[in-house]
Amino acid sequence: MAPPKQIFKCIGIAGAGNMGATMAFGFAEKGIKVSLWDAKAENVDNVMSKVEGEKGVQENIRPFNDIHEFVKSVDVAIDSDGRGRRPFIFSITHGWPVDSVLGLMMDDLEDGDIILDGGNENYRNTERRQEELEKEGVSWIGMGVSGGNHSTRKGPSLALGGDAQAIRVVMPLLKEFAAQDPRTGESCVANIGTRGAGHYVKMVHNAIENGMLSSICEAWALLHYGLGKSYDEIGEIFESWDSEGPLRNTFLVQIGSSICREKKKKKQSGERKSEKVDETYILDEMHDAVGDGDDDTAGTLYWSVMEAADRHVSAPSIAAGQFLRVSSRNRKQRLRVAQKLSIEPPKKLKHIHDVPTFVEQLRDATYISILSSFCQGLELIARGSKDEKWNINLGDCLKIWRAGSIIQEEYISDLLMPALTSGAHIMNMKLIDEVAAAMKKNFDSLKQVVLKGTESDAYIPSLSASLEYLKYEGARMLPTQFMEAELAFLNAHRYDWPGVRG
Q1: Please, are residues 377 and 208 in contact by the beta-carbon 8 Å criterion?
Q2: CATH number at residue 431
Q3: Are residues 190 and 148 in the same domain?
Q4: CATH no. for residue 43?
Q5: Which of 385, 469, 396 minimizes the C-alpha distance to 435?
């Protein structure tokens, strides 16, 4: 079957926050007329104030305050089957806000309309809406959008799940909009699977991302507090990690290098007004309380941990990163507990006689912790796909994460891609020879880093969880034989055993 042609000349975007606005800019730059609406009129006004003077953008974005006029403004395109189609994107907070906006639009929707939900929605809600709208002839597509504000305009990574025919119709438009893999030229968008598969993959993507974030921030702290490296020095180290070796072309390491060096000018007052302006590092102005993701307000991280437990998938590196964020957000309670526990803060690392070698070990440890997060996430997707019969191709997940995505990691992608695109049905990533070899090769580096970090009271939840993960996932005999014995004792109600009181 020949690939469909791009038939759409306009699109409607509901939601003019950061993501919706940058998507509007991205489509407009490609010559697509964008109708833009938001529940808050000021959000639309803010976008329109920014498009003034933007050649190729200003004339292609049309603002709307009335939602009925917004829906009617999107022109109908006829697909290859002769069916009228109108594409809409929702860039709205998950849950009831989506249902609320959908309710306002319902009377104006028509048979053949396609709604792409670009929010971080729970896949169960996605499937519920798909069932409800199917009766109206409207296709609801769960569209996981990765890349954040930095890449939504120039090309995000997109994971689609839902009606295959509707996805086929809208795919040419999304291929023009999505990021392009620089090595293959392929668009980083794919029909991931049926029903809620797109949002499920995006949920797990965010969990992998958080495992990476935790591992990298732990490495940063070991360099800064453990080795006494300056921000600029760490920026150089991260730059070298990103340029070659197992962390090459890792987006989060790449931006970490820039963040370490970024400064903010401070205005002077009084006598010093005419003197040279002071500059402070952005990092010195950052609080240690992560702003979201510690509960279901952001959704995906919380749901991922719950899904891993529910589907019996071991995901400690991911979970440890999530619980670190929970503690970071509960800052007031944490400071009160700190007074009670009086635990020493992290100290300088001891007995590091060869700093360059330790830095290399730290890189390799960070890599293995990130690889562990990838394994855990992909195994959760594989399990979810099997349970829900979504038929997700894990190779497609890797392909759409190659560009535009926050979890871009070239080395790991290259490591996993051959096995996951081979057609083999793989449920356990650690059974891939190349993955097992990498974990075996770098196990000692991870162990040494965790030992040194523990000795200095460093905060290393994901690194240490990854070490334990490799140990018990690859164990021939676990201490749980004793747990099993105790459970057997309790389940048999053997309170009459010698020396045991009932």
Answers
A1: yes
A2: 1.10.1040.10
A3: yes
A4: 3.40.50.720
A5: 469
Question: Which are the catalytic amino acids?
Answer: 202, 209
Give dist(CA 425, CA 208) in Å, integer: 21
Identify how many contiguous H helices and E strands the chain contains and give both numbers: 19, 12
pTM equals 0.93
Q: Which of 63-77, 254-268, 333-347 has the lowest mean pLDDT?
A: 254-268
Q: Does residue 481 contact residue 378 with C-beta atoms inside 8 Å?
A: no
User: Which domain does 398 fall in, by range?
Assistant: 204-473
Between CA 347 and CA 224 the distance in angstroms is 10
What sign for the dihedral angle of Cα 418, 420, 423, 425?
A: positive
- H, E, C per residue of 319-351: HHHHHHHHHHHCHHHHHHHHHHHCCCCCCCCCC
Write the pLDDT tens digit of every residue in 472-483: 999 999 999 999
Instruction: Report the DSSP beta bridge partners of residue 143.
Output: 160
Query: Within a 10 A sphere around the Cβ of 298, how many other Cβ atoms?
Result: 19
* Residue that is last in its domain, among 154, 177, 195: 195
112-139 burial, b at 16+ Cβ within 10 Å, e below that, comes to bbbbbbbbbbbbebbbebbeebeeeebb
For residue 437, what are the CA distances in angstroms to 4, 30, 186? 42, 44, 29
Pick from 149, 171, 195: which residue ends a domain? 195
Tell me if residue 298 falls in helix, strand or coil.
Answer: coil
- Give the Cα separation of 491 and 501 in Å (integer): 16
Q: Do 208 and 70 belong together in one domain?
A: no
Domain assignment present for residue 140? The answer is yes
CA-CA-CA-CA dihedral for 372, 378, 379, 384, to nearest 10: 150
Q: Is residue 487 part of a domain?
A: no
Q: For residues 392 and 201, is the Cβ–Cβ distance under 8 A?
A: yes
Burial class (CB in 10 A: 0-12, 13-18, 19+), 414: middle
Residue type, 308: A
387-409 residue pLDDT tens: 999 999 999 999 999 999 999 99
